[in-house]
Amino acid sequence: MAASISGAFSRDLADLLTGISGSAYGRSATCSTYNLWSYDVYPIVLGGSSAQDAEPVAIASAPATGGRVFALGHEGLVQNAGTAGDKVDRLVMNAWRWLAQGRLVLRVAVPNSGYDGAMQRLKSAMPDVSVTTAVMDMDTFAAGGSSNVDVYLIDSYYYGYTAAHAAAIKNWLTQLSMKGLFVTGHAWAWAQSHPNANIYSDVSINKVLWPLGFSLSVRYKYGFLDAPALVPDKWPYYNALYTVTALTEQLQGGAALPSDALVPAWAAIRALFDTLPARADISSFMELAPVYTALAPLRGAAISGLPDLANLAWTKLDPPPAATMRYLTNTLQLLSNVAGPYARDPYASMWAINSPFGFPVVLSKDEGAATVAATEPAGGGRVVAFGHEAMLTGCCSAGDNYDKLSVNAFRWAANGTKTIRIATIANWMAAPIANIRVALLALKDGPTDVTTTAMTLDQFASGGSANVDVLWMDMYSEYSAVHVSAILAWIKAKPNRGIIASGQSWYWAYDHAQDSVFAARSAHKVLWPLGLAQTTQGTGATQPAPSSTAPLSWLWYNAGYSLPRIRDALKNPSAPQPGPEVYATANAGLAILTAVLPARGTPGTADIVATMDAARSTNGAVAGPKTPLEVMSTPPSAFLDVAMDAWAVRIRDLTNLKPSRSAAAYPGLPTAGAAPVNSLAVTFSANNVVTPPNSQMPSVNQATWRSTGLYAPPGKLITVKVTTPAILGKGFRVQIGAHTDDLTNKPQWKRVPVVVSSWPLVNATLTIGSPMGGLIFVTVPRDAQLGQATVTITGAVRAPRYEYGKTTPAQWRATVRSYPAPWAELDSGKLTIMVPSSLIRNMSDPDPLLKHWNAVMDAMAVLGNIPTQRYRAERFLLDTDISVGWMHAGYPIMAPDLPVVHNEMLNLAYLQNSGAWGPYHEIGHQHQWADEQFSGTGEASNNVFVVYAMNVTGVVPSRIENDVTPEKRKPIRDKYFADGANWQKDWGVFVALDTYMLLAEGFGWQFYKDLSAVYTSLTFRIGDDSARVQFYIQSGCKVSKRNLVPFFAKWGFPVMQPTRDVCGAFPAWAENPMPRLVP
């Protein structure tokens, strides 16, 4: 054993200590020490004040095959090498020569410019070698830059080393000849500020070093022992692997350690234990498994000369709890050979987990929500659920992570069965399951036989289940009570049966906005008893697969695991408390659970709801503009309190209704002491006939909100009596709240993420309420035509509401603007502006402002060829945060509740002088006709409405904030054409606006009015993007009565021959500006 180290050791020590042997180094630094765990690694310099406390601070490795490694525990000694001319400088220069291995041409790369001076001195110190140096980061090195490097220097201060980086360095060292790695930097300062951290997993350079046989330790030494004059035969015992092996052999009857080896042996074992994380820390469990195994024979042993051996922290060797080992085993199986990014990410739905044992398998990038989840239900069996069938249906030609995961999932679900019988229930599963079968049979130590059978759910329930080990089900099929009973009985009958579930629910939600996905999708009758539920939320981006073991924090995503622990920690401060490392994952799981969990009293939910009630804090954080709740760093019990407020709003929970503690922060409270109204009758239009009837404008299918001028105080019950029976059961609803953006997936909650509740009007009397409160509306479904309707509302407070042409300024000033609700409406008849009441309390006369907004709305209607007498007003709402963007279109249009937007919406002088590009832009979106849109127009054609509205309202083009004038548009145009006029890639936004404006300048605004008339008169839909482009060009030629093909072709539009034929019938556009503008 000693020869296995000493052969290389004696050779290389002499090289590295040339000119130093037997000498004092003269100076040193506070260096990190190293833990050595490979026969190829040995000490070169010992740090400490004496031989009794020495540990390695410089080490080397030179395997029989492959490259060399030299490591020194402080970067300053390397960066300043060559400045002192002493033995330390000599050591560093010797190391460079030793790593160069006799090369006459040496290419060196360093991670940053901090080593520039050292590189210049290196060139001077090696005049016989042609040295070139470069700065190269780790990503570049791993991506192929390594091919141009002979010696690479890395340090411990880059915290982004990954498993991919580690593999790149190891492959470079072992597969190419004469390569060298110089390692420097320390970790002792980091260790002092992170006393409970795992240095193997948290100091990322150790991901690179440990596969090479050593690591930085948490220990440090100041001072260097003198360099030895001869090769010290006991230095190999500073290698922990060498020492542990020798001691184990001694316990088995072998030779005892020499007495002079006891000091280095103890130093190696003590340093290893000081740095070694507990075996229960699965973040390093796999990498360190050989260490725990090797140390086990020494536990409890009495070895002469090592009296303190028994006092080491031997409990670090204790295995993880059974649940952790189960999780580790299962995730290792499911993620076998799955590492790094998922190359393709279908837009997948997210899964909530509530199971005695369950865990996420794939997490979304931003929300940390499970897009693939797995459970082992209490009754038996296994389930893997995929948030989109495309994760499976592509299997297995790509050989990517989803292909590997798909095969692993079927294997895991079968739980060791060597003969797997798979049943599929949908025709589209036939092709992928055939490929998965082939892949399963190709697995090493995989199943010996795999059969697949297509069967209906009726066949499965009628006895077919007896011949099935794994059932592939989907979210789209209808599962009857018979099917559900059969599936649940089948999976619980044997432990080696499993279900693969796949599909998404976000698309279903488009047409079921008011329905509970939990209750409405029958697949949940199967999946919820097995611990899974799918939300309507979706994502198209996932986190990379773990590089080694899945984090232990993933267990906390499962509400069945986290909630009892959160509850116990809340009720008993002496109980184990969840640490910050699990907050993000636990909160992500709770956010998704509360997004999908149905109303109280739903069968199968009583236990989880009771646990949630007990686990929520009642004195923790609130979510508001000034106290945003950080989703990833808020303690779970406090997070749950806010999430349950959102859940109560979602499910319209009136059980023990009380105000949310966050309601005061946003949307706010009525004026203190405000008295509720008693039986106020509200009459509204029950008509919602869309005009024009063929409208393709956004949001036309949404119900129209009819304002009541009332506000529901948070936590108060409100009574609604319908006195017009004709509207009952016809799709009419009553709604509390206006802020419809769901902020659940945002990393920061500036308000409770869901604050709008809606009840169907099916009975003549209805009780409603919300912990958040909000404006009260009656919503009228599309195409309703029932004249006038009346409801009587009791328990609400009045809200400021100004109706242009109905409310008088005198009424407004006298009473209306002082109504106690915290939110107000300014209704022009064509646009309803919804703002905090504080913004309108001092407004004396809203008429001039609303008249301006009507001019804007009429201008856009005229340009879009729709009636100026709109069938409903658009709505514009301020919010403390919105779901996406700075502002976004919709019904209502959403914008941030900030002074800059207050100015744009309410300051008439500002609007008359400069307009308001942002709000006009979003209103313009609401006028975009669907068939008139194609690639590049989405954020551009609406700006035509903006410019026209500003023109009509008298805004001088030079005062418009964006690039509208010919002079401002020129640089944008010039760049577009200088870059090659790539229409598919670059034509959009302000490039496209230039195109639009040139047509307006050439033909006048009538061109767009006539063009809109073409689209609004269509009796058919235009199918795809390509057809829409051709129709647009042809229509432009027809309304202008000119051949516009040369104009559009110059911009790079694809022009098909039929379009050339249609436009060729018209005369050329003699005034075409493109030959002049772009010669």
Automatic annotation (TrEMBL):
InterPro entries: M60-like_N (IPR035423), Pep_M60_3 (IPR042279), Peptidase_M60_dom (IPR031161), TCAF (IPR051244)
Domain of life: Eukaryota
Pfam families, sorted: M60-like_N, Peptidase_M60
Domain Peptidase M60 positions: 703-1004
SMART domains in alphabetical order: M60-like (SM01276)
Protein's recorded name: Peptidase M60 domain-containing protein
